[in-house]
User: Fold this.
Amino acid sequence: MKTHVAILLSIALGLATGLGATVLQLNTAPWDGDPGGDAVDPPLPDLPEPGEPLPKLVVNQTRFDFGRLNLDKEGNHDFVFTNQGLGRLVLRPGRTSCGCVVAQFEENQIVVLPGRSTKVTVKYKPKEEPGPYEQTAEVNTNDPELRKVKLVITGKVTVAVKTVPSEVAFGRISAGESVARTVPVYCYLAEPPLEIQGHSFARNGIADHFEVTFGPLPSDQLEQEPDVQSGQLMRVTVKPGLPLGPIQQTIVLQTNLKTAASLEVPIVGSIGGELTVAGRGWNDETGVLEIGPVDSREGVQWRLILIARGEHHREVRFQPGPCRPDLLEVELGESFESADGKTTQTTLIIRIPKGSPGGSYLGTGPGEIGRIVVHTTHPQIPELRIPVSFAILD
Assistant:
């Protein structure tokens, strides 16, 4: 008798543990970020024993359209599962098509008694670019005639406001040029109409080299983008004087929209033109002279070439300006004209003297990147700013 009681207690404990674990999984299941959904089929609930009453599952719907869903919002929908049979209905989570979707059960409603109903909430968090989507979440059951239910959610991911294209692209422009680009700012909300209430820049140090204005968006541009309700036309002007290399700036727009109070718009391109830099350690992509670690006991000497092109290349003269840190020593070497007569090249000599104090000027962590300023007589490019990345080791 005691043995039978122990066996029954073990079975009950096992069932309670299994049900508790399933409840915990369903109520705490996070989005795991796996775009492929579940890699393994979760186990199906056990079928009723022969002779036991059978459950009969009826679902009010297996497909739901969320319609337009903003990219930063979450969609939730309840599917109703009803047991119209005579036996107990057991529900367990099945596979999902994406880590962005999960089927979540009501607490303590994994077992549905005859004549009762429960809700299965499907949650969807968009992770993709705007556009249409279709995702699925399966529910496994112990109904012999309906072992799996596939719940399908569809809709279209949208954004409240965006620019088209997503960035202001200037390409390669001269340091002495003033160049403007226009980019439409589209709003997809019916109300209220989009208003740009202000703007700022991510990098204040070079903000004076940019000018941003806004105006009405022409009707023909509104019609080019599907579902657009209102918009503004943004005009961005780059002024002369930016340092050579890539343009590193972002515009932060402040809007009147509660769902999109701000919007970041990168500015991309590079500054080159009639005055350029070349030589060992010069990174054209980043516009930085990369010297790296320097032994304080030895110091280092570096050479760059300043290249002048265009109609003024023969008249351009250079003069060293201030450096950061001031331990950097800069002097100009010889100048010569190329064989084809199209450029003039001037040597720029950079020294980190022996015995310089240790410090990081890599531009990462607490250390600010070094900088060399070279004044010029070019009528449109009064100075070159050359970032220098290095660290002095004691």
